[in-house]
Amino acid sequence: MSLDRAFRLTGLVGVAFFFAAAFTPLALALHLWMAVEPQLVPSDAIVVLGASVLHSGILSAESTRRTNHAIELYQQGLAPRLILLGGAPEGGPTEAEIRAKVARLHSIPAEAIVTESMARTTREEAARVADLARPRGIRTVLLVTNTAHMVRARPLFERAGFEVHAAPSDIYFEPITPEARLILIKRLLQEVLGWIYYRIAGYA
Amino acid sequence: MIGIFMLAVAGLTSAAVYLLGVRPLGLVPARLGAALGKMLEMVGAVLIFLVADLLVALVLVVALRGVTGTFVSVYVIDDTVWLGLALLQGLVFQWWREVSARQAGAAALEQRGNLG
């Protein structure tokens, strides 16, 4: 096959994928296909996985969504503890500290909150939470993260010895603009690649 | 709804440019297919550069982690700027091929003229 032909075929696939991703419900269909049914049952703790925080100390939209969802679960009485994760890769206050502050503002007692800010990857988060949870007798957890990330995160926490109940933070998320659909597709692809990498590396 | 609006606007400007191209600029309508083919080649080149860039970045991140023990986030590959860089690489590469082919064609014509 000539270089021109190879480029043309790749281009055709790329353009077709772009139109399908931006202008059809493909992103939502994939999102729903990957979605796990929420299992909102009483557990020993609610674990909120890290997303990102700005240097100025403002939580990203994703981090805020997860934190709010966890606070809601706590207020429903589904678990007595809130384990909040997230570091500060760019310096400044850690994501876990800011989340804890938000939780306290929602009248969650400080003694019910545990923070962890050293983990840098999902795999490290599972290991660090296991270290924190063991002495506290925590065995069952409500795991809070987005749907795509749940696919990769859940097996890691199960492997760390937890009985995991999925509590996805974005189950009602529906992208309505082409840009939002592209962002969702990118996130789904990212997680699929991450899952493949974890499988190859033997982490999950 | 927003998607339909965007497609409609792009359709409208494309139709306007088609009319402008055919009438005042004197472009050949039959060559539009070839132009679409060129566009696909350009997009393909950009995509191949994008995949290559991301693969190399991923391998370097994993190697840096393994060799130096320093933590480098894999999320470094999650940046839209990669697409911009791949766009520039793809455009330059395709234009380089184009001008080289043109130059080779001109040289061949010149040689034929000398022989004749």
Protein described:
- The complex is a heterodimer of chains A (204) and B (116).
- Chain A contains 7 helices and 5 strands.
- Chain A has helices at 3-23, 26-34, 61-75, 95-105, 122-133, 147-159, 178-201, and strands spanning 45-48, 82-85, 113-116, 140-144, 163-166.
- In chain A, strands 3-2-1-4-5 form a 5-stranded parallel beta sheet, with helices on both faces.
- Chain A starts with a helix and ends with a helix.
- Chain B has helices spanning 2-22, 32-68, 81-115.
- In chain B, helix 2 (32-68) packs across helix 3 (81-115).
- Chain B starts with a helix and ends with a helix.
- The model of chain B has no long low-confidence stretch (mean pLDDT 92).
- In chain B, 80% of the residues lie in helices and 0% in strands.
- Chain B is mostly helical and 116 residues long.
- Chain B has one domain (32-115).
- The A-B interface holds A 3-4, 6-12, 14-15, 22-23, 89, 120, 176-178, 186, 190, 194, 197 and B 1-3, 6-7, 37, 39-48, 71, 73-74, 78, 94, 97.
Beta fraction of the residues of chain A? 5-15%
Q: What order do the SSEs of chain A take from the amino end to the carboxyl end, as H and E?
A: HHEHEHEHEHEH
| Shape-level CATH architecture of the largest domain in chain A | 3-Layer(aba) Sandwich
CATH superfamily of the largest domain in chain A: HUPs
Strand content of chain B: under 5%
Question: Order of helices and strands of chain B, N to C?
Answer: HHH
The most extensive interface between chains reads: A-B, 22 and 22 residues
Main β-sheet description of chain B: none
Quaternary arrangement of the chains shown? heterodimer
Distance between the termini of chain A: 39 Å
